[in-house]
Amino acid sequence: xxxxxxxxxxxxxxxxxxxxxxxxxxxxxxxxxxxxxxxxxxxxxxxxxxxxxxxxxxxxxxxxxxxxxxxxxxxxxxxxxxxxxxxxxxxxxxxxxxxxxxxxxxxxxxxxxxxxxxxxxxxxxxxxxxxxxxxxxxxxxxxxxxxxxxxxxxx
Length: 155
Hints:
It contains 5 helices and 8 strands; from the N terminus they run ββαααβββαβαββ. The chain is of the alpha+beta class. The model has no long low-confidence stretch (mean pLDDT about 95).
């Protein structure tokens, strides 16, 4: 689902190129979430790209990486593990990102019945965005985390 917008473009991720660029410039909030869930941010980047069924990168028109997102299969073929990791350039595309998030959610959903992952409840911006996407939040996982689920029917 390659698309060009006024302030960025989205295209299939280039695994060996985008992953290291993302790790080098990852938002503090995303790094803290990775660490809080027991995974080094570099490992989270590598696994996210390599395990994904679908994986996209958002870049500026001069090809600076803004974020990457995708979906990885789980043991249950009806459940996908959605992920998004960003850089400090995310605020530069705020309107475009929010406006088109649901389109990309539809694409990531594919044949899955629902998408899931964990989010830090301290990451207020991510929680608000996930809520807008139709996410439901489960019981606490550890101190600050909750599993979110986006069902096909809730989108």
